[in-house]
Specification:
It comes from Aurantiacibacter sediminis. It holds the Pfam family SSF. The protein is mostly helical. It has a single domain, classed as Sodium/glucose cotransporter, CATH 1.20.1730. About 75% of the residues lie in helices and about 0% in strands. It is built from 19 helices and no strands. Helix 8 packs across helix 14. The longest helix has about 50 residues. The mean pLDDT is about 80.
Length: about 500
């Protein structure tokens, strides 16, 4: 690797750790500061933090890789996500910001649910915390896989000190993320997300434009049609089930703790501004990712290049089209996408372990300083679990993200929406929805019905999980609520 590329990446790592140290001085004295940044995030920081922690390495690896292989039809994933994000910002964000404060100043999603449904407080906190830790270990592993692929494709060949390039990438990514997350907490994660979000969107604008102007639009379109006449069609050979499985990604937004926790931390009165910034950023980023996958396929074909793993098309373009220093910047954008999500997921996992296990069962009177320390230890433990899961180089980024996304979307999505909007929802209904959503998703994956459903096409597990959870909440709430009476949490407000 060229020295200029190494310098650019080194500067990026130094910047991330520097932000962590800055945040350490500003917001790690108590739990609210460490876990939510004192609920005082500026709208722009909250918006880009939500976006960057949402998109992850999936935006620069998984989505372009899917488009590279299958064509524009895979863009329906991005369309579904954008629609889901719009509804999330409009319906969930303002209500969650207000109600988490109103119900006991809840610092975590499990804590909010417990305060909202006090008759099932323990069950909700424990079950939701378990789901968060388990699925986030898988989700964080997807990011570490991305870091491993980056090192394996770019930095060096062969083992160094007995460690493969892939393993070195996984470990270095995890260590840098741990450094600024453990030190600076939520504020460090949010500020680094803001910087990383800016880097990501610039990279996703620059790269497809360079490819397009270099190869030419007409020539690129012609070679793609030679590969497959329907490559540039949004509806090429797509069944109803395939369409629903792609667009259903949008259902996952309502239940992603690492995204919706940003809504809880926005400065009072800043939700609308954050929404506009966040959705604008997301639209540009998704269009850029689509361009990387589609135009990247044309570039590879036109120039006789070889690409073993479609999920590394961004890395290939960065290494072959740009000056080494710019390549370093583009690879930093990839690391930014990976690290922003991992840090958010680790922090949410540690907050659940601290607030919903340690303070609930082990030491209820733990001091604020002790709680912050336990949070840092919990962050490291979840990271170790993610490293173990990511140790397999054959793991697919998109597959891991899809499983975790579905798990959270089905378990928490209907639960969050209905808890914020339906007054007749009960604690028993909340528990039923949480267990049903997670259980259906895990069973669907175990039976491999997401690959083949009774000999036919696979159905994305979020669809049955989301529907089953919604029905469970509705039916059990109607069966357990007193006539004409709202749930205890609403009544007490």
């Amino acid at each position: 690797m060229d020295i200029a590329t190494i310098v650019a990446l080194a500067l990026y790592f130094i910047l991330m750790i520097g932000i962590g140290l800055y945040a350490w001085k500003r917001s790690t004295e108590d739990s609210e500061g460490y876990l939510l940044g004192g609920r005082n995030l500026p709208p722009a920081v909250a918006a880009l933090s939500a976006g960057a922690s949402d998109m992850s390495g999936w935006l620069l690896l998984g989505l372009p890789g899917a488009l590279y292989l299958s064509g524009l039809v895979e863009a329906w994933i991005g369309i579904g996500l954008f629609v889901g994000a719009v509804v999330n910002w409009v319906v969930v964000a303002p209500r969650l910001r207000e109600q988490t404060v109103r119900y006991g100043n809840a610092l975590t999603i499990p804590q909010f649910l417990a305060n909202r449904f006090p008759d099932q407080a323990i069950a909700l906190r424990v079950i939701s915390a378990i789901i968060i830790v388990v699925f986030f270990a898988v989700y964080s592993a997807a990011g570490l896989v991305g870091g491993g692929l980056l090192f394996e494709s770019t930095f060096f060949e062969g083992e160094v000190l007995g460690v493969s390039p892939y393993t070195a990438g996984v470990l270095l990514t995890a260590l840098v993320v741990l450094a600024y997350t453990m030190v600076g907490g939520f504020l460090a994660v949010s500020l680094t997300d803001f910087v990383q979000g800016c880097i990501m969107v610039v990279a996703l604008v620059i790269m497809p434009l360079v490819v397009l102007f270099g190869d030419g639009a007409a020539q690129s379109a012609a070679v793609l049609r030679e590969i497959d006449p329907g490559f540039l069609s949004l509806a090429s050979d797509m069944s109803v089930i395939a369409f629903l499985s792609l667009i259903a990604w949008g259902l996952g937004y309502f239940g992603q703790p690492h995204i919706i926790v940003r809504f809880m931390a926005i400065r009072e009165g800043g939700v609308e501004t954050a929404r506009n910034i966040g959705l604008g950023w997301m639209l540009v980023a998704l269009i850029g990712a689509v361009g990387v996958g589609v135009l990247g396929r044309a570039h590879v074909e036109l120039n006789g290049l070889e690409l073993e793993n479609s999920e590394t098309i961004f890395i290939l373009l960065a290494n072959t089209l740009f000056h080494p220093f710019v390549t370093g910047f583009l690879l930093a954008a990839l690391l930014a996408a990976i690290m922003s999500t991992i840090s958010s997921q680790l922090l949410v996992s540690s907050s659940s372990l601290t607030e919903d296990f340690y303070r609930l069962f082990l030491k209820k009177d733990a001091s604020e300083r002790e709680a912050v320390t336990v949070g840092r230890i919990s962050t490291a433990l979840v990271a170790v679990a993610a490293i173990v899961i990511a140790s397999n180089p054959e793991s697919g980024v998109l597959a891991l993200v899809a499983n975790a996304w579905a798990g959270f979307g089905a378990a928490f999505g209907p639960l969050i929406i209905l808890s914020l909007t339906w007054k007749r929802m009960t604690g028993a209904g909340a528990v039923a929805g949480l267990v049903t959503g997670a259980g259906v998703v895990m069973a669907w994956i175990a039976l491999e019905w997401n690959s083949s459903f009774f000999g036919g096409e696979g159905v994305y597990e979020i669809i049955p999980g989301f529907i089953a959870a919604w029905l469970a909440i509705w039916l059990v709430s109607l069966a357990t609520a007193k006539d004409g009476e709202a749930s205890p949490g609403i009544r007490a407000a």
